[in-house]
Amino acid sequence: MPGDSQATVVQSCAICGARFQVYASVREALCPTCGATNQIGARPVPAARPVQARMPAARPQARPQVRPIVVVQESSAQGWLVLLMLAIMVGGGISAFIFRDRIWPKAEKPLKAPEEVVTMPPVDFDREYRLARMKLLDGDKETALQAAKSFRELDGPAIAQPMRNWVTFHAGLANLIAGNADGAEERFRKLGERASSKEASDPKLAAFFARSAELGSTSDAVPVSAGEGLNRKNYEAMGLLLYGLKNWSLGKIEEATALLSEFTKATPEGEDEWVDEYKPLAGGLVSDREQWLTASKAYADSKGSPDKLTAALDTVRSARRQLQSKQFTAEVTKMETELADAVAAHEAAQAKMLAEREAAEATGIVELKTKTDALAKEFRFAEALAAAQQGKFTTERRQAEHKLIQKRMGSLVRFQRNLAADLALIGYREGVTRADGKIVPGDVRAANEATVGTVPWKEVSVDWLTKVASGFIAATSRLDYKSDRQFDLGIFLLLNGKMKEADAWITKAGDIKYEYVDAAMALFELPPEKTKK
Prior knowledge:
By secondary structure, this protein is mainly alpha-helical. The chain has 18 helices and 8 strands. It has a two-stranded antiparallel sheet. Strands 3-4 form a two-stranded antiparallel ribbon. α12 runs antiparallel to α13 (381-390) and α12 (326-377) packs parallel to α14 (396-425). Residues 1-6, 42-75, 107-119 and 526-533 have low confidence and may be disordered.
């Protein structure tokens, strides 16, 4: 403590040997140099003189231990030097830690391009490459996208040249087929970065890759003339495929078709025969172009020609089913939709017009039947036939009915004329029986469209006419004449409501000429049980 007159002693550190001055009354003291604890026991000596350490004297009573006040005397310079060095070391360590990145900079790892991640070729590169090519050759956009991914994964520095360039080339092709123009341009740019330097051993192949990279990495269409210098008998023909696909992806269909057509005509030889495997890709697009042209022509020709709509729709629909390109499929599908709508609208209009016409002609056919039947009931068969021939109908159903009416009236006219001819030729001696049962005596040898003998047709008994006609039929030897007259008599009886007798005579006529059975059923709607034998 400041002002304390207690005696001091000089003590040597038992550890480091440093000498230091302490109060004589303390039992222990810390070395100011190394911090070791020392036992104090020497006699007090004047502070001004150096003394040797002594063992502490025994004291009769215990005194409280007090932390010594160290007074550096002879070793003070050495202690301060040690402390200074320790401070310098600690400060240097702290500074080194804080500025460690500047003193010892970390080595930076070189950045690698995405494809450079592959440092070793796949275990079975040939198999993976073949599978990727199969996906590309499938021609479908989805599988082409998968192929592009596969080729990119195969593309690494461990792949020997020129195979690596072919892998990159195929990745570009796959992206074009998949419709990924940006991906294709990126791959061909990558090809261009190494094509000129990696193939020095084969200048022609290097030039081919360089030219492919140049034209494939731009967003411009490739002129058809670019394919003129390519060798059609080796791998250079693949340039035609590349240029064609490039133009196709840009919508330059005319230029693309010209280049793709040239590719399909290529004749690669020897080790380059693998190029032939890619021809279906080009052939499919060329075929799509032809189908599109066929559909477009049919579509254009149908404009303003309702009668051509259905045929055009069939042509366009057939073309659409054969298309592979989405670009053409979308366009042809649009044509098909428009034509289908046009056909449906035309058919609806036709159906409406037909319904209106059918309604009008249905009324007309009923009126014609009524008129002809009325004339026939009065035995004015010639007039009934003339009336039947005057009608005009356009619907299929009414035209068929019109013909049946004409055939019916024609059969009645034939019945009347044949009976008149037989009476004139053979005659009938028992007179004419009238409808009221009275007999007009005399030999009947004349008949015409108005009268039988002297009796008007409408006043003659139907039974008498049937009796006379059946007699003449029995006397006819020619079967064809007989069947005609049997049928005509049956029609006459149907007109007069004698269904049973009519059926018998028509059956006889059908036994000779089978067509008379069907004719009678159609003309007069005979009962269903009247079927073919």
